[in-house]
Amino acid sequence: xxxxxxxxxxxxxxxxxxxxxxxxxxxxxxxxxxxxxxxxxxxxxxxxxxxxxxxxxxxxxxxxxxxxxxxxxxxxxxxxxxxxxxxxxxxxxxxxxxxxxxxxxxxxxxxxxxxxxxxxxxxxxxxxxxxxxxxxxxxxxxxxxxxxxxxxxxxxxxxxxxxxxxxxxxxxxxxxxxxxxxxxxxxxxxxxxxxxxxxxxxxxxxxxxxxxxxxxxxxxxxxxxxxxxxxxxxxxxxxxxxxxxxxxxxxxxxxxxxxxxxxxxxxxxxxxxxxxxxxxxxxxxxxxxxxxxxxxxxxxxxxxxxxxxxxxxxxxxxxxxxxxxxxxxxxxxxxxxxxxxxxxxxxxxxxxxxxxxxxxx
Length: 361
Prior knowledge:
By secondary structure, the protein is an all-alpha fold. The chain has helices spanning 8-26, 36-60, 66-73, 76-108, 115-132, 134-159, 176-188, 210-235, 238-241, 247-253, 265-295, 304-317, 322-336, 338-359. The model has no long low-confidence stretch (mean pLDDT 90).
C-alpha cells in the first residue's frame, strides 16, 4: 500500500482545526473567568517545552510515527504496554467527543432527534473520512480552515459594537486564585494534546520542517483562542462566563444585525462540527495505528468500521448530561491526561535520545 503524505500546509490546517475542535465552543481557561485570555498566554509559555519535546521526538526518526518510534526504542513487552495505553486513551477521548457533540446538537437545535441517529450520522462520516485516508483529510482541512477563519473574522467584526472593556477590569484582581487551575486545564487541552500530532509522523515528508508545522500551529491557534476569549470576556458579564457551557455560542446568539439577519450562531455550530470532525478523526487514527502496530498489520483500513462502531457504542453509555461531560473536562481530564500527554511523551523522548545513536535508521 502506498504511503500517504500530507503537505506542510495541509498539516498546519488540520492541526489548527483540531485545536478549535472543542476549545472555541466550550471556551478555554474559563476557570479564570474574565482573565481566561491571560491564562491561555501563560499556558502557552509553560507548554513550549512540551511542544519542543513532541517535534524533537519525531525529528530523531524522520518518516516514523510515534508508535513506530516506541517499537524502536522499547522492548517488545514495554512497547506493547505503552501502545495499548494510547489505544485506550484515544478511543476513550473519541467516545467522549462524540457524546459531547450529541449534547451540543441536542442543546442548540435537534431537541427531539434520538441520540442514536445523530451518533450514527457522525460515525458514518468519520468512517468515510478515515477510509479515504489522511491525504483526503488534509485536503479537506486545507479548504475548511480558510472558511472557519473567515467566519471567525466576520463574527469578531460583528462583536465590535457590543464590546464593553469594563467587563475585564480590574485585570487579575479577584481571579488570581483560579488562574493556576485555568492554566492546568488549558495545558491539558489543547496544548499538551499536540502530542497527538505525532500520530502523523509517518505521513510527513522527510524533507518537511516539522518544527515549523508544530510551532506555526501552536502560535496561530494560541493567538486565536486567546483573542476569542478576550472578546467573549468583553461581551458577556463574568457571572455568565462561569455558568454557561457553550460560551462562544452564547455570545454569538446575542448578535443581531438587522430584523432580517439573525441566527448568526449557525456559523458557530459549523465551526464546532468541523473541528470535532477533525479531532475525532485524529483520535481514532491514533487508535487504528496503535492496533496496527500491536499486531504488525500492513494496513489499518480493515479495522475502521469495527473501531468506529466501538466508539459509537461506548459513547452511548458515557455521561447522561452536558453537566457530567463538563465536570469531566474541567475536574478529571487535566489530571487524567498528565500521564498520556506529558509524562510518557517525556519518557519516550529521553529514552529515544539515549538510544538514538544505536538504532537510528
